[in-house]
Write a structure and sequence with these properties.
Layout (H helix, E strand, L loop, with lengths): L1 H31 L6 H7 L4 H5 L5 H19 L6 H5 L5 H14 L5 H20 L8 H17 L5 H9 L32 H18 L6 H8 L3 H8 L2 H21 L5 H6 L1 H11 L1 H13 L8 H20 L8 H21 L6 H13 L16 H8 L1
Length: 408
């Protein structure tokens, strides 16, 4: 009897220690970002030695898998509560930060983890249920609703006052709820206002520009994680130390590459004289051209924007400025498009969140979603603007774990 009690007590103690480790890991990852947290940090926060922690989780990967599984289970319980449950998700400690980080990890992995595939399946099922309850919300698809939610979570990382749950509710029932969005600024007059202030040091500007132009081609071919500092240095014909002297780190160079892409985008738009309504009508076609010509840069933009959510990330300031300018720009287009939008600011926030969220989904399930068609659908049903190229929304996509199983 005494032996049995001792074993039971030891089992309970082990479970408590394991739960303490998981709680510490979630708190540190949620506040600092997974890339900035080590096993030693988690062990110290859990008041346990590193060898003691490894007795429960054999590696950082094993611990992250357990954290993801716990995250999926907890969010799944919340999503069983119906339409209001997406707001309850934000009450889960560090939900927004962890959701965005796990999304970023899933986009750079060979295949999504079972836990994140589970979370995505839960979101899609919940979205389908929500749209069944709101059958008059013809402007929304389940895939678009999930994409907008994930895009809004990323935006909230840069604009904490933004309220994703209220914005979702406003889209489902516009007459009932008014949602919060980042404070409005004067609508920009031209595409040039999309370009953020230059990122980086003031000296060596011409040399830096040449490095950025060469690196842009390499990133477009290989993407973000497929490119190393050594490859970059070799491509542009300088040493790795010289490259780091100019940009400090790979993320700094990536931010400059993104800015360079913005300049190219503005140059392309500036060559075409379009009114606001025509420009909105051509967003789907623009997305098609981008996917054909700049797919690597689009993927890189999506991954880096989800990685840079913490203020100490070197590209955080870039994306804060870029998102703000983009929302301002689309607000101006919508306000001057004769679309009859009652809230151009809110529609601009939704458009940016939807577009980015669709890009995340395209990386996760490239064969299951037509991003331009989703944009065309939104422009027509939400703003009443006929797209330049009519395209039908494909059937709702497979879930991530269905994609994974189809690749085995």
């Amino acid at each position: 009897m005494r032996s049995s009690e001792h074993a039971s007590s030891r089992t309970a103690s082990t479970a408590l220690t394991r739960q303490r480790i998981l709680a510490s890991a979630r708190a540190l990852i949620g506040t600092r970002g997974g890339a900035q947290v080590s096993l030693e940090d988690i062990a110290a926060a859990s008041e346990i030695t590193r060898p003691g922690l490894l007795g429960h989780f054999r590696s950082m990967d094993a611990l992250m898998t357990a954290v993801e599984a716990e995250f999926c289970a907890e969010s799944g319980r919340q999503m069983t509560l119906g339409v209001s449950s997406w707001g309850n998700l934000l009450e889960i400690p560090h939900y927004r930060s962890m959701s965005v980080q796990f999304l970023s990890l899933a986009m750079t992995a060979d295949s999504p983890s079972p836990s994140m595939a589970c979370h995505h399946r839960q979101l899609l099922a919940s979205a389908e249920s929500i749209l069944t309850e709101h059958s008059d919300s013809t402007a929304l698809t389940a895939q678009g609703l999930v994409a907008a939610w994930e895009g809004l979570l990323v935006l909230q990382s840069y604009f904490p006052s933004l309220d994703p749950a209220r914005i979702i509710q406003a889209r489902l029932d516009p007459a009932r709820t008014r949602a919060s969005a980042p404070s409005s600024r004067a609508a920009p007059a031209s595409p040039a206002s999309l370009i953020p202030a230059e990122f980086g040091y003031a000296r060596g500007r011409s040399r830096r520009q040449q490095i950025v132009e060469d690196a842009t081609m390499l990133f477009a071919r290989n993407g973000y994680h497929g490119t190393t500092i050594r490859q970059l240095a070799s491509e542009v014909g300088i040493s790795a130390s010289t490259l780091l002297h100019h940009f400090g780190h790979k993320a700094g160079l990536l931010a400059e590459v993104l800015r360079h892409r913005d300049e190219q985008l503005v140059h392309r738009r500036g060559q075409r004289d379009m009114d606001a309504r025509t420009e909105l009508a051509e967003l789907g076609d623009e997305a098609r051209r981008d996917l054909e010509v700049e797919r690597g840069l689009i993927d890189m933009y999506a991954v880096l924007s989800t990685e840079a959510i913490h203020p100490d990330h070197p590209a955080h300031a870039y994306f804060t400025d870029r998102f703000s300018r983009t929302i301002d720009y689309f607000e101006g287009l919508i306000a001057n498009s004769d679309s009859g939008s009652p809230d151009p600011r809110l529609d601009a926030v939704w458009l940016v969140a939807l577009w980015d969220g669709l890009q995340y989904q395209l990386i996760l399930s490239p064969g299951d979603m037509d991003l331009p068609a989703q944009l065309d659908h939104h422009i027509q049903t939400s703003l009443g603007i006929t797209p330049a190229t009519r395209s039908a929304i494909p059937d709702e996509p497979h879930t991530l774990d269905e994609r994974t199983s189809s690749q085995v």
